[in-house]
Amino acid sequence: MVRVPHPPLRFTSRLHDERVAAWLGIMLGLSFTTTFVTGLISHFMQHPAGWMVWPSHPVNLYRVTQGLHVICGLATIPFLLAKLWTVYPRLWRWPPIRSAGHAIERALVFVLVGAALFQVGTGLLNIAYWYAFPFFFPTAHYWTAYLLYGALVIHVTNKWAKARHTVMTRPEDDLRRRGFLLTVAATSGVVVLTTVGEAFSPLAKLAVLAPRRPGVGPQDLPVNRSAYAAGITTTIAHDPGYRLVVTGRVERELSFSLDDLNGLPSHTVRLPITCVEGWSAGATWEGIRLRDLLNTAGVRQDARVRIESLERVGVYTTSWVDHSHWHDELTLLALKVNGSPLDLDHGFPCRLIAPNRPGVLQTKWVHKVVVA
Ligand SMILES: Nc1nc2c(c(=O)[nH]1)N[C@H]1C(S)=C(S)[C@@H](COP(=O)(O)O)O[C@H]1N2
Ligand SMILES: [Mo]
């Protein structure tokens, strides 16, 4: 009888073992939970379901949740790569499929890995402003999040008992594994240190890997979409015929020239711009309270209002303001930032600034307030 020899065992390193995989899995479980929850907050702040009214306080809530989302997503990358390297020998296990249950489990792992790579990959490209993909990032990133988190929950349920046992029992020697895990954690720590300053200003100087940094830009404030990119020229923004109009379901329509606006009671607030791409920066804004304008025009106290930009085409040419936000005395139509009239890139002649709100909803180059 001919005996088929066993294939040689090639993956003998302890770094490919259960213990390393389990610890990396725990870290990934925690980080994907954080990014999933903060991602949902971001999605529903931008696209609230009918019954959702977001509070305007705490003022910095979105700054914290979105900073966490992006920085935690970046910190996940070393853990994800290490986990994939640790478990990839299992791809070569023979036979590839042992049973129907095993086939489903393997398919699920492919979904999990594919979705995880897709989320960190597209997230990374998006914050780097490299729109290399043919789909609309927010939609794809949002739906893939459910796929990823669903697959993750099933995977954790499958592995829970075994991983728990592995982590709880003491190994005989731990040194190489511990060194490997510490290296992965340290790499992740370096990623955090060199990016977190994009949202946490005291560390701004260290944020060498961040695409935007607080303090860097016209009037010490970063710009996401410039006036040039939005098609707003000096001629358009400085047109003497410019009027800010309050219209829609109002008792009286209002119309103001820039001089009129500068003559209205002005208020100063300290609020951050928080871009959904993770960077945020505090600034001092001066302008007119939105609620003063709306009360002068005469509107229902629970009215929603739409802020419209001079920008003609684009995804962020308008934004909705709920009553919880326009009642807030911090919500301004700002005319100045950090002591001087708005730079064209920051929305001259007039822009919305409100507390606890994603940057995409802080409309620049405002010329119309429409009450619904
Ligand atoms: N009209 C208009 N307003 C806009 C945008 C835009 O593309 N068009 N971009 C938004 C985004 S994504 C952000 S983060 C903030 C940035 O404001 P800043 O450039 O003054 O820092 O403006 C918001 N307002
Ligand atoms: Mo943004």
Automatic annotation (TrEMBL):
Pfam families referenced in this protein's UniProt entry, alphabetically: Oxidored_molyb
Positions of transmembrane segments: 20-44, 64-86, 107-133, 139-158, 179-200
UniProt xrefs under InterPro entries: Di-haem_cyt_TM, Mopterin_OxRdtase_euk, OxRdtase_Mopterin-bd_dom, OxRdtase_Mopterin-bd_sf
Gene3D superfamilies referenced in this protein's UniProt entry, alphabetically: Oxidoreductase, molybdopterin-binding domain (3.90.420.10)
Keyword list, A-Z: Membrane, Transmembrane, Transmembrane helix
Domain of life: Bacteria
Oxidoreductase molybdopterin-binding domain ranges (all copies): 240-371
Classification via PANTHER family: BLL0505 PROTEIN (PTHR43032:SF2), PROTEIN-METHIONINE-SULFOXIDE REDUCTASE (PTHR43032)
Protein name: Molybdopterin-dependent oxidoreductase
Natural source organism: Actinomadura meridiana
